[in-house]
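Supplementary Methods S3. Input chains for the assembly prediction are listed below.
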Amino acid sequence: MKKRYFLSFPANSVTEPIIYNLVKKFDIPVSILKADINPGKEGNLLVEMTGDNAMLDAGIEYLKSQHISCNSVIKRVKWVKDHCIHCGSCTAVCFSEALVMERKNWKVKFFADNCVACGLCIKACPLQLFEMDFME
Amino acid sequence: MSLTKSFAEINDKISRGEAVVLTAEEFKQMAKNSSPQEMVKKVDVVTTGTFGPMCSSGAFINFGHSQPPIRMEKITLNDVPVFSGVAAVDAYIGATEVGSSNERYGGAHIIEELIAGKDIRLKAVGKGTDCYPRKEIETIINKETVNEFFMFNPRNAYQNYAAAVNSTNRIKYTYMGSLLPNFGNLTYSTSGELSPLLNDPDFRTIGIGTRIFLGGTEGFIAWNGTQFNTSKPKNDFGIPTSNAATLAVIGNAKEMSTEFIKAAYYEKYGVSIFVGIGIPIPVLDEEIALKLCITNDQIETHIVDYGIPEHPALGKVNYRQLQSGSIELNGKIIKTAPMSSMIKAREIANLLKTWILQKEFQLTEPVQQFPRQSSVKSLQIR
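Predicted structure tokens for the full assembly:
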């Protein structure tokens, strides 16, 4: 299975070869979807990891042992759905197909697994219903 | 001889609970198997709806007089300036007006909060006159404390609107939403075949005085809207292929609902307001029925490049294509997305239908027709 995570590094972990270790030691293929690494400061990575549950759990345990916080994308993107008027503005910018207009009933649907946390929906929503606490 | 009906006859049927009322979408579905002539016999009223951002909107408000009274010359509501150049305690809350502290909060938000029944802080100053001695005032108002609070929107419900793309290599933030670089997306903003003025494109039944659905209650068409334009080119079905006619509308904001009036903010553009409008169209004769049969594939609009200041047109597209989710332009597949809410437009058309069926809403013959010839002037710099 594939899962997307936000990894937040403390300043002293930024130079650790985290991705190398995930691949070599835990056999987890990692795709980097977004990176914001600043030597000497906190760093952030958005990654997609592939593997079965046991493999991913082991990888995440390793990350935690390195003091890297690891959160799934779903927990970091907030959408106040109840206030949504389903205008569709967010779907215009969502190139990863996480926010999709269902054309049968003209309702916006959020497929969190597709989200790459680009943040375009935050600025696109005229009702300001999206929030994300990553790289913003 | 073909059947014709009058407004009075249809209103009689509404009163008796015998009127046949369909939404525009339902009518078009039924018309697939019936001629326009048969549709006149079968259907009395067709309801339309739209719920899109309509910047040219606002509301008049009368605060009442304090003791001693003040001639309010500068007024803010929650720090948003409102137009105070109308008598002592009248003001106009312009939807797009913002204060100096928060560009994302403006007149539209004040209007929405007042409709919701919330308290708003009023501050005003005046120079002090013999008849209005007070020079400043600060207090709390809400829709129960004020006298009148009515929406009066100079330009709403555009009859068609151009679709937007961006040819440049940078994202453009516009009133048509965020336009991705290199034709990364296309946005459009009408409810297509459900839209009021696209169902009566020659204004046979819609005119000054028409009773309408406005913001969740009944309102009226006060005038042709600003930039009302009858000179735009029309396609083979008689539909203008770009932004043409508009409506000035009026209604009691105290009775409106925040379900159908919503404040909006467009990144790097500013504040706007979603306004819900529905208009009933009586099926008076075959010609009106024929226009009501027009479907999304017959309603076209231009694709306009918002990356270039002159907004050049790049081609034409119809609403069936726009609503499909993607179109092809110069060999490239472009994702399409609406800016106005279709689900709300449907809700409005259905609600209006229910009001009519429950005998709560009667149709109004226009007191006066819209201008037959009207074009829009540009502003000359001299």
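The CA atoms of residues 310 and 381 of chain B lie 17 Å apart. Residues 64-146 of chain B form one domain.
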